[in-house]
Amino acid sequence: TGLGFSLIRLISTHCIPANYLNMRRGDPAFRRRLRDKRRAQQQKAERRGAQLWDPAKNEKLQELFLQEVQMGQLWLSRGEHQLGVEHLSNALLVCGQPQELLKVFKHTLPPQVFEMLLHKIPLICQQFEADMNEQEYLEDDRD
């Protein structure tokens, strides 16, 4: 009986699923649905990419970046470190090369301000992920 169960188990776990997959893959409707699904995903990614690299939006992001850096510098010069770090973290969020900007901040900011900024980075990332998830959710609702 142990051999019989082993044989049944072997057939049910290996042969039947392999046969099912071959039948499924050979089905013209399956291939069409898979192709349509991949096309839809590619079009969605292209739309998202076009939205990201829109020159008008890119220009607005650059303006926002400069504004946030200037506001951060202004607050830091007034001794308001927390507000300055808030604006500099916003600049990091919209910056195209945040690692390079962090290197610049490391050399130009006072050490305690730079430390405050480093502690703020995980919060920035969480906020960014939440914003992106919300945006994807809203885009999925439109489709």
TrEMBL record:
<dbReference type="GO" id="GO:0005742">
    <property type="term" value="C:mitochondrial outer membrane translocase complex"/>
</dbReference>
<keyword id="KW-0496">Mitochondrion</keyword>
<dbReference type="GO" id="GO:0030150">
    <property type="term" value="P:protein import into mitochondrial matrix"/>
</dbReference>
<dbReference type="InterPro" id="IPR002056">
    <property type="entry name" value="MAS20"/>
</dbReference>
<dbReference type="GO" id="GO:0006605">
    <property type="term" value="P:protein targeting"/>
</dbReference>
<keyword id="KW-1000">Mitochondrion outer membrane</keyword>
<keyword id="KW-0812">Transmembrane</keyword>
<dbReference type="Pfam" id="PF02064">
    <property type="entry name" value="MAS20"/>
</dbReference>
<dbReference type="GO" id="GO:0030943">
    <property type="term" value="F:mitochondrion targeting sequence binding"/>
</dbReference>
<keyword id="KW-1133">Transmembrane helix</keyword>
<dbReference type="GO" id="GO:0006886">
    <property type="term" value="P:intracellular protein transport"/>
</dbReference>
<comment type="similarity">
    <text>Belongs to the Tom20 family.</text>
</comment>
<dbReference type="GO" id="GO:0016031">
    <property type="term" value="P:tRNA import into mitochondrion"/>
</dbReference>
<keyword id="KW-0472">Membrane</keyword>
<dbReference type="InterPro" id="IPR022422">
    <property type="entry name" value="MAS20_rcpt_metazoan"/>
</dbReference>
<dbReference type="InterPro" id="IPR023392">
    <property type="entry name" value="Tom20_dom_sf"/>
</dbReference>
<protein>
    <recommendedName>
        <fullName>TOMM20-like protein 1</fullName>
    </recommendedName>
</protein>
<dbReference type="GO" id="GO:0008320">
    <property type="term" value="F:protein transmembrane transporter activity"/>
</dbReference>
